[in-house]
Amino acid sequence: MKHILLLLFLLPLFSIGQAKKISLEEAILLSQKKSPDYQAAVNKFRSSYWKYRNYKSSFLPQVSLSATIPSYSEEIKPIEQDNGTQNFQNISRLNTDLRLNVSQNVSFTGGTLSLSSNINRIRNFGDSESTSYFYTPYSIRYSQNSIFYNRFKWDKKIEPLLNEEAKRNFIEAMENISLKSCNQYFTLLKLQIQAKIAKTNFANSDTLYKIAQGRFHSGKIAENDLLRMELQYLNAKNNVTNNSISLKKASQNLALFLGFETENLELEIPQNLELFDVKLSKALKEAKSNRKSVIQFRRQRLQAEKELARVKGTNKINLTLDANFGRSSRSSTGIDAVFDNYTKQQGVVLSMRIPIIDWGLSKSARKIAEANLDLTNTNINQDKRNFEQEIELHVLNWSNQRNLLSISKKAQEIAIKSYEITKNRYLLGKIEITDLNISLQEKDKAIVTYLNSLERFWSDYYTLRKLTLFDFRTNKKIKAEDLLFD
What we know:
Elements: H1 2-10, E1 20-22, H2 24-34, H3 36-57, E2 62-80, E3 86-106, E4 111-125, E5 130-144, H4 151-217, H5 223-258, E6 265-267, H6 280-290, H7 292-315, E7 318-331, E8 343-353, H8 361-427, H9 433-468, E9 470-471, E10 476-477
Helix pairs in contact: 2-3, 2-4, 3-4, 4-5, 4-7, 4-9, 6-8, 7-8, 8-9
């Protein structure tokens, strides 16, 4: 019976036209499909996905075909003669080239292995026309920029973490959308309820004011009581007007966030969640298993270690390697002859750079990298403590909030019933207007307090999901694949 009286009390006393009715869970589902925040989260997630695909592809064989068809040049160049002198001659040349190349990054060593084949034709014009060919059936080359620093080894550790971090970041972004949608939903809901309360209070004040006028004219109440009732009537009228602007703004904000064309929304009061306990050990376990922060800590440490390894591997003795082996031939008599009489082409270049005097440049770079690694470790340890503390405090808050919601709901029912009794006693002339006003204020305050408790209850629930990426209602992990709608 109490629930029926409560629903009847909260029903609007006026028609709201063709308002679109919507529940909290429907609003959250819509926000996860149509909101601007969802589109931004999806685009960011897809960008990270393709970035990881790009990284994976870089360790697959890359095949390319290049050609020069043709390259023509005409210029005057100094040509050395047999006797050691130089003459300037006019040179006209048509060059055609075709090359096939296969390359492969070698993660184990940090270098690049390539296999290429090419054929080149040069046609000389002028006083003595000639055509020559150069053919390389195969050429195997290996190159490495630094012998002591393997970038691929570090990327192989870091890039998968970045990919997993992007997935978890997307899930957290979706939970943020749920939380934001919940907050906007309750902002509008409270304003709608307050508008209904204001209209109800205004209607009651109008009735009571008319009754007070009759009593005053019959000499049953003093003028002071009539003036108090008139003041209550005017205040109730002002409240109806003042709520309209805030109500319209909140309606527009929620409609825009949910992708509605209409802002004429009628929100349902969410029911309490079924009771379930959240143990701190379980929450910490799921948070450490699911949150992006855990992956982020590992990734940040590896990136700092990678930078230190790069500085150590390149700042003192820097060795680079370039080696190739292949076959080639040339011909000036015709293209058929170029496929005979192959000769070797091979070479190895090992370059070394050793700083002799750099005025502490190498040492300072190493010290900076070491200091950054120490700072990263310090920040990670602090972030871990804050991370665990945040989970612990919110689990405790979740348990308390359920009790507070139960108390505020009971207080609301009592305040509404008390006001109805007080109003009836005032109509019978058994109490003063002051008692009625106090009961009215207590009733309005209790309703707002209950709505605030209900908002915190649902907000805490979605915050708990965001902090752990785990749905304790269904006892399931929240996965990125389940949140992609297109």
